[in-house]
Fold this sequence. Notes:
Blueprint: E1 7-10, H1 13-18, H2 22-25, E2 40-45, E3 58-60, E4 63-74, H3 77-95, H4 101-115, E5 120-131, E6 136-139, H5 144-158, E7 164-165, H6 172-182, E8 189-198, E9 207-211, H7 218-225, E10 229-237, E11 241-246, E12 251-256, H8 258-264, H9 271-297
Antiparallel strand pairs: 1-6, 1-7, 2-4, 3-4, 4-5, 5-6, 8-9, 8-10, 10-11, 11-12
Function: May be involved in recombination.
Organism: Dyella japonica A8
Protein name: Recombination-associated protein RdgC
Amino acid sequence: MFFRNLTLFRFSPAVADDLNRLDEVLGEYRLRPCGPMEMGTKGFVPPVGRGEEAALTHVVHACTMVTVGSEDKLLPGAVVNDELHRRVQKIAEEEGRKVGGRERKRLKEDVLNELVPRAFIRSSRQRAYVDKKNGWLVLDTSSRKSAENTLTQMREALGSFPAVPLAPEEGPRVLMTDWLANGNLPAGLAFGDEVELRDPASATGAIAKCRRQDLDGEEVKEHLRNGKQVFQLGLTFDERMSFVLGEDLIVRKLKFLDVVVDELGDSHPDAAAEADATFALLTLELERLLGKLEEWFGLPRPAEA
């Protein structure tokens, strides 16, 4: 249940009150199986457990986890085009004529009608939780598109969910460059072993990616002297978690260190108890990290819905 990436949104206290409805509204938006002629479906699935009786939310203190599931048919365009080409060729050979645009379109529809019901189905899950006390929507993804899709599902279920992207008052790229260039790290932070530096002067500027490298080394400093800025920076927070922070404030490669994992223990009586303990630990650790991100970069919580 530990998240591996964090894409973040914020919402107001008024919105937090409305989120108390989550458990009662999600039932109408449960994931249903993909129909024979559908290319995909989306809906909510239980964050913990399986089956129709399992709850669609998992609550610990002020945090509520939800999971959006999807079923998508795998039907590569090349497969469709190959079959369409075969049928067009057959008509040309057997009837001695060319297939026009309108007929080609009808043939393609016939191909899709035959192939879609037989296509393989790929299932996926997107986890997220809302922290009603502090006004965070936290999604376990580094993909902005995936995050927006999950947010759309939540808005559809609630009728409205005005969560907004982060609006930092301090420029992340400038601030992280200062951290690296001058060693002005906030208390509790330490450098990891990777960084991505880019020339901000142009979209095609030089890019330097360093991994498994001392970030205090001369090679990194030379890039900084040449005008490159930090776009992604590996960090360790309070010796409890490591991650790579992007200038878009997406947290990637999040890993909880042994000291945190050891606190979870392995003496839980059942899967539900383990899920409760893991989610509680996850949200407590991230509450501290997100509070610091708010402080360092100036990430105001919306005052109104």
